[in-house]
Structures are given as C-alpha cells and as structure tokens.
Amino acid sequence: MAVKKTDAAKVEKKVEEVKAAEKKAPAKAAAKKAPAKAAAKKPAAKKAPAKKAAAKKPAGDNVVLQYNGKDIEMKALVEACKADYKAKGHKSASNVCVYVKPEDNAAYYTVNGKGAEDFKVEL
Question: Which residues, 6 or more positions from 8, have their beta carbon under 8 angstroms from its beta carbon?
Fold first, then answer.
C-alpha cells in the first residue's frame, strides 16, 4: 500500500520544516543574546544579582541513512511519521517506533506499540 500523494506531500513539507528549524536554531540563540548585551550597556540604578550563564546544550547525536543517492535524517523521519499520524486524524503521537525498509523505499511506524497497514511514510 502506498500513501496518498496529498499525504506524502504533507509529510515531505513537514520534513522540510523540521530541517529548516534545525538550521535556524543557532540563529535563535544569537538573537537571544543580543538583548542581554543591550541591557548590560544601560547604567543600572539598582544592583541586580548576577545571572548565571545558561549552559549550552550539546548539539546531540544524529543518524543519517544514505542509499540510492538519498540522505535521510532519522530525526526528520520520526517527525514525518508523527505528522503523518496526526494527518490521519489521530491525536499527537507520544511513543513512535520507526522501521526503515530501503528496499520498499518506505518507513513503517507504530504508535504506542500499535501499528496499521497505513502507518507508512514514503522515503
């Protein structure tokens, strides 16, 4: 069984949105620092307690599947599966397990341990 073209387009759009959000994350961190610098330049009437520097979160690990000239990021694939599940009229998915089958050019998923024939995302 294949996913409808409209569902596949929605999933592809969601994958692109997730990738774009991951690329913008460093820009957002820099934007948050700018107001702090501007506030530091103003003379303070009262002495405020020093703020602790926020600990930087590590970028984290990422797994990329490469085959047939495609690069598929696993984080983006999980988000695409969640978006597909929600597009099918379900509530948000909390426990998603993804099974990638390159020979089928698809990824199958289960939500909370339950699967169905239409729980499939084209790669």
Answer: 121, 122
* Residues facing 109 on adjacent strands: 98
Strand, coil or helix: what is 67? strand
Residue with tokens 């003379």: 43
Residue percentage of the chain with pLDDT more than 70: 57
Decide if 96 contacts 109 (C-beta within 8 A).
Answer: yes
Closest by Cα among 119, 111, 84 to 95: 111
Q: Where are the domains of the chain?
A: 1-22+63-123
Q: How confident is the model over 14-63, as pLDDT tens digits?
A: 777 766 666 666 555 555 555 555 555 555 556 656 666 666 666 678 88
Q: At what angle do helices 5-41 and 74-87 cross, to 10 degrees?
A: 120
User: Are residues 80 and 15 in contact, defined by beta-carbon separation less than 8 angstroms?
Assistant: yes
